[in-house]
Specification:
nine-stranded mixed β-sheet, alpha/beta, two-stranded antiparallel ribbon, Nucleotidyltransferase, domain 5, elongated, about 350 residues
Length: about 350
């Protein structure tokens, strides 16, 4: 891994992948290779420097890195009597299999012993619902965003850069937006209800209520049950009575059974909405200011793909109370029907 100074320099000269595609036939790489081949002592010094200041992964011997930058390596070999330019060192490093990479967030923070069993259960439920023509909906809340002239990551094609405040103080925001997403697996359609208050279980259930009454019910007029695929935490936490209380109220209002299947802990990235919907919403909004609520709605509606994904957006203006608690009588006679297999993650709410 090279430091930020040389990473910036690399961006000016082109990305590693772009330069690597040119291969050894490019003039710069050809000259670098020719110089090193003509000076065996130079290559020997390069390898000695790399050997001393190179570390590796004990579990994967082929993964190595160096804390030195090309400029620092060039300075070291020059002190050893073989001067060379940082560009030659950079090309040589690539030939040795080292390149600029960023840290990949791929390691799970933990693993549940029932992980595989729950994944098999979810696969079975999805197949059953698809065969019956019933909806399979994946839902989750996207990260909260702040409204106003505040910086947002990403780049966009424009004649000049958008202007934002030089600091991202929350007090400078004009409001917050909380996007609650619902993704229909069979229809490849996404919907976002933008909340302006708090991400609570009541908000999550209101989001599903709005969606089903105005979209879902028309798309599945003969549906007898809805399958919800959720994470384990957040506003639809598997461990909280409050979500189950609000879910039962939702079912009583809609008059249709809702089955919930939670993904195991540390497995939220496998929730379909995280892979098939949210990335496209983020792409549609990247590098653009969320200066007004109207802008947020317009940008999110642009989320689409060539394979047919379309997005609808609605705003829920209700203010949600935090710190709510479930009445003891609900806990004592909870009407939720838990499955025999992994009941902590699989249960049904039926209308009364």
């Amino acid at each position: 891994m090279f430091d930020a100074h040389h990473r910036t320099r690399g961006e000016r000269t082109g990305s590693t992948s772009q330069r690597s595609r040119s291969g050894a036939s490019s003039p710069t790489r050809w000259r670098s290779k020719k110089k090193i081949e003509a000076e065996p002592q130079l290559e020997q010094n390069l390898k000695s420097v790399l050997e001393v200041r190179t570390a590796g992964d004990p579990d994967e011997e082929e993964v190595v890195w160096t804390e030195f930058s090309p400029s620092q390596i060039a300075e070291k070999v020059a002190e050893m009597g073989t001067p060379v330019s940082p560009q030659v060192v950079r090309d040589w490093l690539e030939d040795e299999g080292l390149a600029l990479h960023k840290i990949a967030k791929v390691l799970a923070g933990g693993q549940s012993p029932d992980r595989d069993a729950q994944f098999q259960r979810i696969a079975t439920l999805k197949a059953e619902y698809f065969d019956a023509g019933n909806p399979v909906l994946s839902l989750d809340t996207k990260a909260k965003e702040r409204l106003g002239q505040l910086y947002r990551k990403g780049r966009v094609w424009t004649q000049q850069a958008f202007q934002a405040f030089d600091h991202d103080f929350p007090s400078w925001a004009t409001g917050v937006v909380i996007p609650h997403g619902i993704y229909d697996l069979a229809r490849n359609r996404g919907h976002i209800n933008v909340g302006l208050s708090h991400d609570t279980s009541q908000f999550a259930c209101d989001s599903l209520r709005w969606y089903w009454k105005r979209i879902g019910q028309r798309c599945y007029p003969d549906a007898t049950s809805i399958l919800l695929l959720c994470d384990c935490g957040g506003s639809n936490s598997a461990n909280q009575y409050l979500f189950k209380h609000d879910l039962q109220a939702l079912v009583d209002d809609l008059g249709i059974e809702i089955r919930v299947a939670h993904y195991p802990s540390y497995c939220s990235k496998y929730n379909p909405i995280e892979r098939r919907f949210f990335p496209h919403v983020g792409r549609a909004c990247q590098g653009l200011l969320f200066d007004t609520l109207a802008t947020v709605v317009r940008l999110m509606r642009n989320a689409s793909t060539r394979t047919g994904l379309k997005t609808t957006v609605n705003v829920i203006r209700r203010v949600y109370e935090t710190g709510r608690h479930v009445a003891e009588d609900f806990k004592a006679s909870i009407p939720i029907l838990f499955d025999d297999l992994l009941p902590k993650w699989n249960y049904r709410a039926v209308p009364h």
